[in-house]
Specification:
146 residues, 0% strand, globular
Amino acid sequence: MSDNQVIALLAGSAVFVVLMIAFYVVCIIGNWKIFTKAGQAGWKSIIPLYNTYVELKFTWRPEMFFVGLALGILMALGSVIANPVFAAISGVAGIGALVFEVIECNKLSKAFGHGAGFTVGLIFLAPIFRLILGFGDAQYVGNPSK
């Protein structure tokens, strides 16, 4: 590998890292505002796993956190254990996790008075639509599961 190729690789990697940090900061800002609108402390949105638990409290049911966690563990086991049975379980768990995430996005959308179109936006452009929820005029209308 030549010096120019190494420099180009390092520059590309640096740009990628900066973009990922910016992406993460945008997600934090959007989630902080969403949590605040829902009557939760904003800091709860930056703690991994706990933020999901808290979000499920104001959008769905907190017990669903353990369903999502179990799906994630099953997916991870399928990728670690080289066994066709675990691979199949991992695949089914992956589909379950996808369905779980779609339902969660729909519940979040409904909790702020939006419909199916906003749900699609949360699925495909989550950081942007979370910023819209946080900084837009949408108000928390309550847990749609209650």
